[in-house]
Amino acid sequence: MRKLVLLTVLIVSMALAATAFGQTAAKGVKKADVQKKAAQAVMITPIVTLESFEVPQYDGWWYFAAKVEPTKGDKGDRGAPLPMSFLFTVKNPNKYPIALEGAKFTVAFDREFEVITYNNNDVMWIPAGKTNHFRATTMITARSALLSLLVTGGYKLKEKGWDAFGALERWWKGVPDYTVPVTVKEGAFTFTGKGMTKVIPFDATVK
Amino acid sequence: MRKRALFSLLVPFLAVILIAGLCPVAGAADIKIGGIMDTTGATSDVGKDYALGMDEAFKWINEQGGVNGKKIKYTWFDYGYRIPEAITKYKLLKRLGSIVIMGWGTGDTEALSPTVNKDKLPYVSASYSAHLTNPAKTPYNLFFSSDYSTNARAALTAWFDKKWPGKSGFKENRKPRFAAVYMFASPYCSAPIKAIKDQATMLGFEIGPDQDVSLFALDTKSQVMALKEFKPDVCWHGNTTMSVSATLRDAYGLGLGADWIVNNWGYDENLPRLAGEAAEGVMGATPIAFYGQNYKNMDIVVAAAKKYNPGVPQEKRLIRTPQAWGDALVTWEALKRADKAGDLTGDGIMKKGFETLSLFDIGLGASPITFTATDHRPTTGCLIQEWKGGKFQEVERVDLKQRWPEKWAKEWLGW
């Protein structure tokens, strides 16, 4: 019986302790709010730069319509893939670590033909005062780009006097050897640090 | 002895209950939601804006405390508007533990429907095909918007109510003439054709031959010339913005003289930019308000867009952003209700979440949303707007259930 009484006291104490922890946590949240407000005033904007661009695996330029019988596998409208890899430098000028929580940007060829919007929500920490690298790799095919061009870029092509396949061939041959301008536009890099969130817009053109 | 044994079991049990109940961090876990979006393919001009809007909506929802304190982890991928890729991404998202998936096009949504329903995984898409609204066939497919058939019926009815009485044909006491223009092979474009022709017949229209206009079309003169032979009073365009604008321009240039009503994916802020003068007076189905239009909650949508995508110019944002919010907000409410009922299984999200929504108001100019166990048509009507004098203006909010309750209840579900 004595054991039971002791056990009951123990349970009640644990419950009270949990409640107290909860209240402290709640206070902690309020405290975090205060810290957040304080941090907002001192958080220095991280610096994002596009360091390099490459086509990591080049498969040339080709397109097969669905009427062409393949040597193996299923037939279909297929176009050459064009993977692109962008290396960003992310510098944290703050005296505390920050996390890159998301990166989003649109890739355009010849500055105005948007070919993909990239999104990544992997979290990467950058120590105080340090610089880190973030690599984003995208993938498009000549087939997906063709459909995008035909449905959404028709007027732009017409204005320039280009035909869709002509533009695709020029891009698929010119992007890997850096003769076609590749633009990273409408970028948004989301950083958090000390309870604060900051979204940095980003634009750059590969030279 | 038995009493003592009972106590020895009861005490640890009580301890666990007490600690779990009093500790505020207990039970908190992320809710995983997946997204299959088009940011590279044939619909990327509108798909990108929708994808950005969806991402912004879930970020804002997390700022509001997520689902009853549980944070939403939203992971989305581009699928390039390709059905095989959509299936691959669906499998990945399921493997990652998504309990709801936000989808996109009609082709892939309908292709995935049997899998989604077998997996009991709620799939909230941007395809508003009426084929997805009968829960006897597609119990796990959902969207917030009026379906395409409701859009089409509402648009034709609004024209009949508001425009036809002002036409010379009305005074001559003849039947109004109607024709449909769309890409025959596209699941999205062809989805509401049966319904709009049914509506036209019901309202006493004479129906002319359909015209096949590709989604890629920049020249539609031959189709417009064919229409001229029929002399329609009003034409339905069921395509997306670029080919709709091309048709409007050709119709204007060739003096067709008909009014136009357009489905929602062909009717956005880019239409007057691309069609110019030819867009004047064009009416369209707007299941939600245009970006920035003065409706409840639009300030939240605009603020989130500026906050989370500051690099995207405001003038580039489209009605597709509020559309994404519509699907996100209705999903949020369903998840909150299912979570409160302690059941975040697919079945629970449907029965204790979505199917408990009755005339739920998300603002943003959308019609009130209701789902029941036997009817997944989210709304009973649609707001029809018109491009006039340099801005979009309300023409009429048509409520089909109110106007034709018998047909709504017994005839029109699922097509």
Plain-language structure description:
The complex is a heterodimer of chains A (207) and B (415). Chain A has 207 residues and is α+β, with helices and mostly antiparallel strands. Chain A is 34% helix and 38% strand. Chain A folds into two domains: 1-42; 43-205, Immunoglobulin-like, CATH 2.60.40.10. In chain A, a hairpin with a 2-residue loop joins strand 9 (182-193) and strand 10. In chain A, helix 2 (142-152) crosses helix 4. Residues 15-32 of chain A have low confidence and may be disordered. Chain B is α/β, with parallel strands linked by helices and 415 residues long. Chain B has 16 helices and 13 strands. In chain B, the strands form two sheets. In chain B, strands 6, 7, 8, 9, 10, 11, 12 and 13 form an eight-stranded mixed β-sheet that branches. In chain B, strand 3 (100-102), helix 4 (106-119) and strand 4 form a beta-alpha-beta unit. The radius of gyration of chain B is 24 Å and the shape is globular. The termini of chain B are far apart. The relative contact order of chain B is 0.13. The A-B interface holds A 4, 7-8, 10-11, 14-15, 18-19, 21-22, 25-26, 104-106, 114-119, 121, 140-141, 144-145, 147-148, 150-152, 154-155, 158, 185-188, 190, 199-203 and B 7, 11, 14-15, 18-19, 22-25, 39-45, 48, 51-52, 55, 74-78, 80-82, 215-216, 218, 240, 242-243, 246, 274, 307-313.
CATH arch. level architecture of the largest domain in chain B: 3-Layer(aba) Sandwich
Please give the oligomerization state of what you see: heterodimer
The third-level CATH topology of the largest domain in chain B is Rossmann fold
- The N- to C-terminal Cα distance of chain B equals 69 Å
Question: How many strands in all of chain A?
Answer: 10
The count of domains of chain B is: 2
Query: Count of helices of chain B?
Result: 16
Domain count of chain A: the total is: 2
Output the number of helix runs of chain A. Answer: 4
What composes the largest sheet of chain B? 8 strands, mixed
CATH homologous superfamily title of the largest domain in chain A: Immunoglobulins
- Which structural class matches the secondary elements of chain B? alpha/beta
**Residues in helices of chain B, as a percent range:** 40-55%
| Gyration radius over CA of chain B | 24 Å
Strand content of chain A: 35-45%
